[in-house]
From TrEMBL:
It comes from Pleurotus ostreatus (Oyster mushroom). This is Uncharacterized protein. One of its GO terms (cellular component) is mitochondrion. InterPro entries: Nuo17.8 (IPR034444). The lineage of its organism: Eukaryota, Fungi, Dikarya, Basidiomycota, Agaricomycotina.
Length: 152
């Protein structure tokens, strides 16, 4: 009972008004008590950071020393060169594609610009065939070069 009264009187348990009251940014009740526990950490070069830095440094030097020289082809470069298609093949393929595209565009332009040929429709075409071509006397052939089609 005494412990409960002591806890309640010191304010360790939150009261209803304290829970419902708005907290301001400047209120920080946790920092009012003086800090008495001070401890120091041992700082040295034996930590994990320095160990990892040293290991990575040695690995970097070893990779630089034993890496292939610039004039030697690495394994990955040789593998890519083995499975890649030569430049001339792609060049020939592109030239062929360009020629075929040019032919296709020429044909499409030809078809787009094509027009129906003009046909002269005579009003009475049977009149041209009334006379027999076999019964005409000499010099009486019909000359059709002067016939003019009427425009509608």
């Amino acid at each position: 009972m005494l412990i409960a009264r002591a806890i309640h009187s010191r304010g360790c348990l939150p009261s209803a008004t304290r829970l419902l009251a708005p907290r301001r940014a400047a209120s920080h009740s946790a920092h009012h008590a003086p800090e008495t526990s001070e401890f120091t950490t041992k700082e040295g070069f034996g930590g994990a950071f320095w160990r990892n830095t040293l290991i990575l440094s040695f690995l970097g030097v070893a990779c630089y020393k034993y890496a292939p020289e610039a004039n030697d082809n690495a394994y990955l470069t040789r593998w890519m060169a083995f499975y890649s298609v030569p430049r001339d093949v792609w060049l020939n393929l592109n030239v062929k594609h360009t020629v075929l595209q040019q032919e296709s565009s020429d044909q499409s332009i030809l078809f787009a610009d094509a027009q129906v040929s003009k046909v002269h429709r005579y009003r009475s075409p049977q009149l041209l065939d009334q006379a027999s071509p076999f019964l005409l006397p000499v010099g009486m052939t019909v000359d059709m070069s002067d016939v003019v089609a009427k425009r509608d």
